[in-house]
Amino acid sequence: DSIGFKDEVYLNYWVSSESKPRYDNNYQRGETFKLVMGDWKIVPGLYKALHFGREGDRWMMKIPAKEAYGSKGLTDLVKPNEAIFYDIQIGKVIKTK
To answer: What is the tens place of the pLDDT at every residue in 44-72?
Structure first.
C-alpha cells in the first residue's frame, strides 16, 4: 500500500539546496524524523512525493522552488526561487484506518 492521508511516516533524510549542500539531516540528531501525512510541516513537493512511497523505499529527488520555498527562500539556506534536493529513506509507515 502506498502512503495515505493521516498515516504516520518515519524517515531518514538529507536535504540540500542548489547553493547550500546538505544543510539539514536527521542523522546528526540521532533520531528518525516522524511526520503525519497532511500536517503540512514539510514542503509541499515532499508531501506530494511521499504519497507514492512505501516502507523501505529510498529516493533522491529534486523539488522545484514552487513546491519548496518559492520566491521567499529559507533564510540563508535556500535562495529565492531555488530548487531543493532530498535523499530520503522511508522507514516505518503506520497506516490509519
So the answer is: 999 999 999 999 999 999 999 999 999 99
Q: What is the pLDDT of residue 66?
A: 98
Rounded to 5°, angle at Cα 89 from 6 and 66: 70
What number of CA atoms fall less than 13 Å from residue 67's CA on the CB side? 13
> In angstroms, rounded to a whole number, what is the distance separating the alpha carbons of residues 69 and 63?
10
Of residues 28, 33, 45, the one with CA closest to residue 86: 45
Among the listed residues 14, 31, 12, the one whose alpha carbon sits nearest the alpha carbon of residue 23: 14
Residues of the chain with pLDDT under 70: none
CA–CA gap between residue 8 and residue 39 (Å, rounded): 10
